[in-house]
Specification:
The structure is a single chain. The chain is an alpha+beta fold and about 325 residues long. The chain folds into 2 domains: about 5-195, Fructose-1,6-Bisphosphatase, subunit A, domain 1 (Fructose-1,6-Bisphosphatase, Chain A, domain 1, 2-Layer Sandwich), CATH 3.30.540; about 205-335, D-Maltodextrin-Binding Protein, domain 2 (3-Layer(aba) Sandwich), CATH 3.40.190. It has helices at about 5-15, 25-45, 65-80, 100-105, 145-150, 220-230, 245-255, 275-290, 320-335, and strands at about 55, 65, 85-90, 95-100, 110-115, 130-135, 155-165, 170-175, 180-185, 190-195, 205-210, 240, 260-265, 295, 315-320. The strands form 3 sheets. It has an 8-stranded mixed β-sheet, sandwiched between helices. Strands 12-11-13-15-14 form a 5-stranded mixed β-sheet, with helices on both faces. The protein binds 2,5-anhydro-1,6-di-O-phosphono-D-mannitol (AHM) and magnesium ion (MG). 2,5-anhydro-1,6-di-O-phosphono-D-mannitol (AHM) binds next to strand 5 and helix 7.
């Protein structure tokens, strides 16, 4: 059996971009390296005295866990050292970084990431993840990166992906030519191609939502969840409710098995909880590349014009027909 490593695959696929200079390939490889470092630390989390809050709070007012900070630093260092981006935006930092060296000013890309999503699950041993999104810069090569390089709509992403630190560690990414998944083989320390050309089933039997918020959601979303629970032999309902509360893990399962994840707006938080730039956009790019859909209930996630680096958005993402059904019920709300 021949093994294809992440680096081999990235190099092989560089031919997908006829005029590419290899910068994007190197950037993806740097993310692979950072995620191995994060994986190593996450796996040791139960053994070391590294749990608990650092004591600082991030821009969203959430208490940071030590591993969030570690993951953030690991990614920033690996990516900055690689020199393929002129700037970085991270969910953990209120402002973006624009790198001032000559090498960085000449680079073509910016990256945004959520270094460790679902980090409130670390101390209960539940899967967590890293999510990233890459854009081509808007400003001129040679300039310092500015906010407009980051505030691009999802449709302009050139690559996106996630790493799930679960029962095994996987890296899944797209550059707009399908979705491929790599499993970390610990004995050789390499991500190996394990899920080639991933496709999400058009229909699924899993719905993932925090039902505790349901009374505060719009009637269309409530009706959809009711519909999922009704018996209908033909369509295989009732569906199964599966909610880990760790976006990458819920998304990854639904991508493979077919399903839908919803984090809608509520009365007190009309924009929901999740961040457009760090969570919704990259996963939307992946799900669309795998044949699924992602919407905020009114429009395609990747069409949203961002105004703020940290803005939130409602997110309904997964199997195409399931997302379509929710949209049908939301549209009927206004009639
Ligand atoms: P985080 O970025 O602070 O970790 O928050 C995002 C997480 C997602 O992973 C998860 O799907 C969601 O928050 C769960 O939220 P809730 O506990 O409100 O259901
Ligand atoms: Mg997050």
């Amino acid at each position: 059996m021949s093994i294809v490593t992440l680096s081999e695959f990235i190099m092989e696929r560089q031919a997908d971009f006829p005029y590419a200079s290899g910068d994007l390939s190197r950037l993806l490889a740097d993310i692979g390296i950072a995620s191995k470092i994060i994986n190593h630390k996450v796996n040791k989390a139960g053994l070391q005295d590294i749990l608990g809050a650092v004591g600082t709070t991030n821009i969203q007012g959430e208490t940071q866990m030590k591993l969030d900070v570690f993951a953030d630093n690991a990614l920033i260092n690996a990516i900055k050292w690689g020199g393929q981006v002129c700037g970085i935006g991270s969910e953990e930092n209120d402002r973006y970084f624009a790198f001032d060296s000559e090498v960085h000013r000449k680079s073509k890309y910016v990256i945004l990431f959520d270094p460790l999503d679902g980090s409130s699950n670390i101390d209960v041993n539940v899967s967590i993840g890293t999510i990233f999104s890459i854009f081509r810069r808007k400003s001129s090569i040679g300039d310092l990166a500015n906010v407009n390089d980051f505030l691009q709509s999802g449709a302009e992403q050139v690559a996106a992906g996630y790493v799930i630190y679960g029962s095994s560690t996987m890296l899944v990414y797209t550059t707009g030519h399908g979705v491929n998944g790599f499993t970390l083989e610990p004995s050789i320390g390499e991500f190996c191609l394990s899920h080639e050309n991933m496709q999400i089933p058009a229909d699924g039997k899993i719905f993932s939502v925090n039902e505790g918020n349901l009374y505060a959601c719009s009637s269309g979303v409530r009706e959809y969840i009711d519909w999922c629970k009704q018996t209908d032999k033909k369509s295989g309902r009732p569906y199964s409710g599966r909610y880990i509360g760790s976006l990458v893990a819920d998304f990854h399962r639904n991508l493979i098995k077919g399903g839908i994840y919803l984090y809608p707006g509520t009365k007190s938080s009309p924009q929901g909880k999740l961040r457009l730039m760090y969570e919704a956009n990259p996963l939307a790019f992946i799900v669309e590349q795998a044949g699924g859909s992602a919407t905020d209930g009114q429009q395609r996630i990747m069409d949203i014009k961002p105004k703020d680096l940290h803005q939130r958005t409602p997110l309904i993402i997964g199997s195409k027909n399931m997302v379509g059904k929710v949209l049908e019920l939301i549209a009927a709300e206004n009639i």
